[in-house]
Task: inverse folding
């Protein structure tokens, strides 16, 4: 069976000045995984190493270089799967972990499937994965984006609100003219009936084409 590896650098708009760096980063991550496969390593080892390369590259929204939350934190997600056994390991919303893909690999090898937030961080320390400093993940580009977004939100809240709400007088719920069974069975009536009475609710219904149909089921 031929060997292949594909690396995806993530979604989002890549500006022209970043395009070359992102492309080179994807190529480098692909080569990292490819060398492991060529040396007889497992697919899991190759995937973990390739994703670590992306996480260490500030051009990507992964580990170092990840975007900030509205509160100014950096919360990371990662997941990895073993195709033969269908085992999976994932972490979400974890902070101060430089390579969350390696933490996800540890989750895969444990009795857990998905660990989130503080629980994932505590599990990392139990597995001997050290916590990094916030500055190890923060980049100037993402910090400036966060400042711009924050200024935009503050400007909108100080000016005209984006959404308006107006209360309208309430009305009673419309009373159904026909019972549920009659409304359901109307779908199966002949189109050539007139003044057919529902046997369940006693309601009459006029046929727009006129005449009594012999195939009416009511």
Result:
């Amino acid at each position: 069976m031929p060997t292949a590896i594909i690396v995806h650098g993530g979604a989002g708009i890549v500006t022209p000045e970043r395009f070359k760096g992102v492309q080179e980063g994807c190529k480098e991550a692909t080569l990292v995984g490819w060398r492991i496969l060529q040396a007889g390593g497992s697919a899991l080892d190759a995937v973990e190493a390739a994703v670590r390369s992306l996480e260490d590259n500030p051009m990507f929204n992964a580990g170092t270089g990840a975007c900030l939350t509205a509160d100014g934190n950096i919360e990371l997600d990662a997941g990895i799967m073993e195709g033969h056994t269908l085992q999976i390991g994932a972490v979400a919303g974890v902070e101060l972990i430089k390579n969350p893909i390696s933490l996800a690999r540890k989750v895969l090898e444990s009795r857990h499937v998905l660990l989130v937030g503080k629980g994932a961080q505590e599990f990392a320390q139990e597995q001997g994965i050290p916590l990094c400093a916030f500055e190890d993940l923060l980049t100037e580009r993402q910090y400036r984006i966060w400042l711009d977004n924050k200024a935009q939100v503050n400007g909108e809240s100080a000016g005209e609100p984006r959404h308006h709400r107006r209360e309208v007088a309430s009305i009673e719920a419309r009373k159904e003219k026909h019972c549920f069974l009659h409304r359901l069975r109307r779908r199966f009536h002949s189109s050539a009936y007139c003044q057919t009475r529902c046997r369940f609710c006693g309601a009459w219904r006029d046929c727009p084409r006129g005449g009594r149909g012999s195939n009416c089921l009511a």
Observations:
- Helices lie at 16-38, 43-56, 100-108, 117-126, 134-137, 140-158, 180-185.
